[in-house]
Write a structure and sequence with these properties.
about 425 residues, Growth Hormone, Chain: A, 20 helices, about 80% helix, globular
Amino acid sequence: MDDPNMNRRVLWASLVGTAVEFYDFYIYATAASLFFGAMFFPATSAAAQQMAAYASLGLAFVARPVGAAVFGHYGDRIGRKSTLVASLLLMGGSTTLIAFLPTYQVAGWWAPALLCVLRFGQGFGLGGEWGGAALLTVENAPPGWRGRFGMVPQLGAPVGFIAANGFFLLLGLTLTPDQFRDWGWRVPFLASAVLVGLGLWVRLKLTETPAFKQQLAEGPPEAVPFATVFARHLGPTLAGTFGVVACFALYYLATAFALGWGTGTLGYSRTEFLLMQLGAILFMAAGIVAAGVLSDRYDPRRVLIGGCLGTVAVGMLLAPLFGSGSAVGVFLFLALALLAMGFVYGPLGAWLPGLFPAGVRYTGASIAFNVGGILGGGVAPLAAQAMAERGGLAPVGWYLAGCAAVSLVALLAASRSGTAVD
């Protein structure tokens, strides 16, 4: 694609859409880390409430592969554009409805039940979002630009994080604790409706990607893309699934778990810790950009391997820095962790779609990304909380290093499979 105006439109649509979707996802993660435990679950103990909140956070990771299969099916059969619009509507609608939920003190067990239903809806929508946004960019990328185009939807993650945590930080600075507890926490969820409208306005102006048009011209689409992926492309699917484990584990340990542990056990104020995370997320954005450039200069797999090695080092530094008792040490850990996150996340937009042919690319990339999300991120905050409660932060660091080792093995195996498809 050599039309500069179309290039800008595609990149803008992928960035805005994923930023909105990740904003929705992250405001839940922030709320779960800070106060959903006490609001939506019975008062047995503070630790039990926090773990219940993290369990509801993990529920979306179970929903994401289901969404990936459903949206992937239609994305490979009827097109990328309409599927991306539908995923955005489902995600945004689920997020907005959370703003109207009653608390456990008002509605009893109905409160956590409804919260979990809407959290499932969030995950179902996001399951179709990432794969479609990645395909939108890489299938429109000019020769030699797949890494740089593929990194653009990845930048939606730090943009969404800044918007989500920045919103909570602003509310915390302008509202009293009682106001924040009574109604202020609902405002970021309500704001999702406005942001979804923006995302829809951008995406409805798009056309289908050249790769999808060519696939239709060559013959009818696969009847059941999901079945084709597992029957003919199981090796790439497994490589992609385990290859993303490090990225999810690293991110949710450095954000959701770190926020809950930092404002609880370590005693930092919510405002202070959110400011540290907002500063550290800029390192993630820088890492994504650097990884995208390096992916075009070398190749995405090599950059991902380097990121996994860096993640092992971050795991070894988790306890000494994060548990140092110093704000400088905490910030340094967060910055290093999220910088490494850029290198295990940024190249995925170019690497994962390249494992599959165009006819099943939406399904294959989405399934691998989201099943890997369960393995890497779905249980990470809950597991880390349990390990830290019993053995301190050192086991959490080993857990992170182990997740990086899993992805490293998968990436090395993928290099020998010869299954990558341009």
